[in-house]
Amino acid sequence: MADQRLQKDSPALLLVANYRPDVGFAWWLMESFWVQCAYVARDLGWRTILVYPEPGVVPAAIRSAPIQVEFLDFPGASTGNRFEAMRFVRHHNVRAIYYTDRAYTAVSHALMRLAGVRTIVVHDHTPGDRPPVLGSRGLAKDVLRRLPLVNAFAQLCVSPLISRRAVENARIPSRRVITVQNGIAPVPAIADRVAIRQAAGLPVEATVCITASRAHPYKRIDFIISVARRIVVERGRRDVVFAFCGDGPALAELQELARSEGVAESFLFLGRRSDVPALLRASDFALHPSQGEAFSLAIVEYMGAGLPAILPDIPTVCQAVTNGVDGVVYRDGDFEAAAAAVLALADNAEQRGRMGQAAEARVARDYSLSDTHARLRAVMSAVMQGHSLTPFSDN
Questions:
Q1: Domains in the chain, start-ordered, CATH in brackets?
Q2: Confidence band of 23 (pLDDT split at 50, 70, 90)
Q3: Which side of the chain, N or C, has fewer Cβ within a 10 Å radius?
């Protein structure tokens, strides 16, 4: 609940959710960011309000933080919605807004400023590789990004690569682009690898290639099933098992595809699970053929669990690994190359171990959630106090 020590007329930081509070995906990370922002606000004498677009069960982390929860489709799409949002801002003395995956340029930004908001921050987690925008289109974007009122004060990006995308493709001024490197908490060690496999229905003696993601076409789990067919059916390697953790709109279609490709017994659908970190520790390596990412938490979780990850050479997907050191990068769309990478790791336990150790060390050094939180707190404190920021630099 909101901190009762703060006065009702204290300035407020508004956090804006994109989904109802009981939706999954990677919103646990957003929730952790909201909590960090709330403590920054409290230290500055501000209140924090979080608006969800629809009612639902509010996560425990939010309930235990100094956050006042409201339900409002903010800022809304219709004229009536926008005026309601402006009334909300005035009533609660909102002085700063923190959005997730919203537009850097929007008419609603101007309306919120007219209602009293001083600072708008957008935290960009959107996936995909986008080429630089040049020529007349680039010039037009440059002009648009410099218009007063309709642009956010800053865009926070989850990695240097995504910051570069913001500057080169979205043409957001580099002084407004701030890198807050995504990270993860340490992946706990396990005491009994065999017991974990048995509990999950994984063969104890098999080599397990694991994937954790949503069952969505963008994640290209169908690619893994085709790779599995090349290994299990065409090469007869029944000792290699593929495990998929997750659910989503394409799950039934993927299960049928595994049956039709003849790999149903070697491609195990484990469903959405709460014990994924332990399953990663109990596996041997990972395959993640996603079409694009921002900065994939799943990939760094594989690495943090000591697994080398096999990834396509799509920059946003493979940005966390160094090919041949802590992961393997194959040519995007090349089934045979991916299958060869799977077999190479399956047949060389010493190489798996060496690469897995390097991957875990890389995550501990470069992709720590505590470092992410510290950086976010520093940025939000500066933004809310009107201090200058350290912008993105490619140097």
A1: 12-183+369-385 (3.40.50.2000), 193-366 (3.40.50.2000)
A2: confident
A3: C
